[in-house]
What we know:
By secondary structure, the protein is an alpha/beta fold. The chain has 4 domains: 12-246 and 311-409, Thiamin diphosphate (ThDP)-binding fold, Pyr/PP domains (Rossmann fold); 248-310, no CATH class; 429-480 and 516-653, 3-Layer(aba) Sandwich (Rossmann fold); 672-840, Rossmann fold (3-Layer(aba) Sandwich). Helix content is 38%, strand content 10%. The protein has 34 helices and 20 strands. The strands form 5 sheets. It has a 6-stranded parallel beta sheet with strand order 10-7-11-12-14-13, with helices on both faces. Strands 1-2-3-5-4 form a 5-stranded parallel beta sheet, with helices on both faces. The protein is elongated and about 105 Å long. The chain starts with 21 loop residues before the first helix and ends in a 10-residue tail after the last helix. 53% of the residues are buried. The chain binds thiamine diphosphate and magnesium ion. Residues 56, 89, 143-146, 180-183, 209, 211, 213-215, 219, 343, 358 line the site of thiamine diphosphate (TPP). This is Pyruvate dehydrogenase E1 component. It catalyses: N(6)-[(R)-lipoyl]-L-lysyl-[protein] + pyruvate + H(+) = N(6)-[(R)-S(8)-acetyldihydrolipoyl]-L-lysyl-[protein] + CO2.
Amino acid sequence: xxxxxxxxxxxxxxxxxxxxxxxxxxxxxxxxxxxxxxxxxxxxxxxxxxxxxxxxxxxxxxxxxxxxxxxxxxxxxxxxxxxxxxxxxxxxxxxxxxxxxxxxxxxxxxxxxxxxxxxxxxxxxxxxxxxxxxxxxxxxxxxxxxxxxxxxxxxxxxxxxxxxxxxxxxxxxxxxxxxxxxxxxxxxxxxxxxxxxxxxxxxxxxxxxxxxxxxxxxxxxxxxxxxxxxxxxxxxxxxxxxxxxxxxxxxxxxxxxxxxxxxxxxxxxxxxxxxxxxxxxxxxxxxxxxxxxxxxxxxxxxxxxxxxxxxxxxxxxxxxxxxxxxxxxxxxxxxxxxxxxxxxxxxxxxxxxxxxxxxxxxxxxxxxxxxxxxxxxxxxxxxxxxxxxxxxxxxxxxxxxxxxxxxxxxxxxxxxxxxxxxxxxxxxxxxxxxxxxxxxxxxxxxxxxxxxxxxxxxxxxxxxxxxxxxxxxxxxxxxxxxxxxxxxxxxxxxxxxxxxxxxxxxxxxxxxxxxxxxxxxxxxxxxxxxxxxxxxxxxxxxxxxxxxxxxxxxxxxxxxxxxxxxxxxxxxxxxxxxxxxxxxxxxxxxxxxxxxxxxxxxxxxxxxxxxxxxxxxxxxxxxxxxxxxxxxxxxxxxxxxxxxxxxxxxxxxxxxxxxxxxxxxxxxxxxxxxxxxxxxxxxxxxxxxxxxxxxxxxxxxxxxxxxxxxxxxxxxxxxxxxxxxxxxxxxxxxxxxxxxxxxxxxxxxxxxxxxxxxxxxxxxxxxxxxxxxxxxxxxxxxxxxxxxxxxxxxxxxxxxxxxxxxxxxxxxxxxxxxxxxxxxxxxxxxxxxxxxxxxxxx
Length: 842
Ligand SMILES: Cc1ncc(C[n+]2csc(CCOP(=O)(O)OP(=O)(O)O)c2C)c(N)n1
Ligand SMILES: [Mg+2]
């Protein structure tokens, strides 16, 4: 593997002079270190005991402080300021700094991890960076390891995109990501570093806190994580800066003329380096320098104490300043700073370098005293209460003034999240004409219907330029290739080659100001891109409307955690689950046929999912979604949602919008699309969604023609929204005794509808079953539970018993059990339709 010697990348002679006051900044660090640890410690007080992390921030304090005092640009800085991904469980240090800045009170610190019970909801502080829970503070959720590095790369890339499209000048904005060395084992952490290099993202800096430990023990006991990471990043084309040794080592390395010390540094594995720092100076003399007589001699003039005082680079403020400065000045490639630190540093021998340090949340009275002395804080012994040691906040000190002055000079306090901007002027009805008018004799799948609508919306004078289609390959599958030539694919390099299909209408065109984000085959990257674009309303004050079109099977299932974080970050936009359904994507089989993404989507509280059957439904849904997320929202509505729309690839005749279209029903989750039109009124209700509405309509016809049983057919546009409404009503009724009871929407709609209810969809039964208990009368559902298989649509539908004949069978069965048809009728139907013969399915 490609790595350089185990020493600092920037030699001492190239270090710039340090512009700050090192003594004052050391004092500031001491206060923050103390308060961070005390905050977590106090959160373990009797009756609370809510956990937290002390050792991570203790290892990273200098990494952050050099940034806060000299580099991180606040939102008021000219050019818009920096965007910082803080390591999730280093949050105590970030809160402790905000406390010193006067942005958080002592009482708020005492509410750490008690978001409900400390002074009521909102009175406490969330455990980790969660924008949704602390929306004016945290900008980026990071605590799911691996998502921070991935999202940071795509954030930096999106910043470039905004710039290159002329939407916002982001040339002076930098993205910083603070990461753990253990975290780098996540595939997402390293999986996109090639993207950052390829796109030349010199607006991006990774700082990896290499404390050599993760939660359980060493990251690479037998190896060297810094060297390993150097190889990966260097190989990918990054600028790598290692900050391994503190300044105390400089004279030793200068005196190491025969390279013996260097050889030792290169050879010793991380496990040993960790152990040294959990031991003592004499141990280091013996077990490190003592390995070679030449190095033993090299430190012969140093006392054990002086050997103990040879620091790691990540705790040397000047070495870090040097690295950060070089990173911000480097052009053409992103930079990673690999800083070697000690986990639990300054917390004393029970914490430093111990394998258990990650989980330790309390200091013993002796630890507290030692820690105080180490930081030179004038807190009397008598104040060091076992449960509630005091916070330290010197009022009107020069340190405090210095700290404020630095943040003023750098453009304001961080982290901070701001949402500016006014509602967008949204397109009116004419923009949706294509969805309303149907497809005439042409057969059009809902995927194509959506793309047609999108094309029209992208022409809108006001907001057309705000749409950001995102695709992980497969554009041709979804019909999005129609946008290649007109909107072009974003590439910072433009198109430097002669395109093979340049003469064709739908040629593949790359452009430096392209609109489409064609990510290549990375759903994880696409999700990250979508998150960056969908939070632009906050991070840049420029609302963008991302439309990420994925294979529905590779959305929630593949990148569910990214979508969870997107919900936390309050991403607004559209996720389009194309090729939806377990039987509609015929032929593809077990891996591709999606019969459960709607189930997964229902678990994400930020996600509003619709399973439309027709283009006109999609039109109303999209229009309302744009209104809610980007326009004028109604009372009680949160705009901080995203829409998951499942669309199918089966061409059908799109009907024109009915004259008496029930828009309220479409948006609420169900409308009666086809009432029973014959004879004495309906005797059963068929609830269907998406493509299954086609089967339900055919079943309605068969029921009437073959069995004389009229039925209503409903198009259920959102099972999840119906359920959410019902749960909310249920809750309201519980908490408002004595007031007139409210009735859930689904119950209201079906209250007067006679007969049993049979629900059917191309999804597993648990999807429609969400509403079962709110449906009056007999409930039964059909669905595609189980793995998919490769076959034709009819065969698959017969196999899963969701086709029209199977629906008829089920309706008759329900009617028979109510005594409304003869007991033998269902069996007769099964025989007549030869339901057990898959080959006969049409
Ligand atoms: C995806 C995921 N898996 C597991 C965890 C639990 N976890 C929290 S911190 C941690 C160890 C982190 O080690 P490292 O990245 O080296 O950070 P350090 O605390 O050493 O700076 C783990 C496993 C998590 N937060 N996210
Ligand atoms: Mg670590």
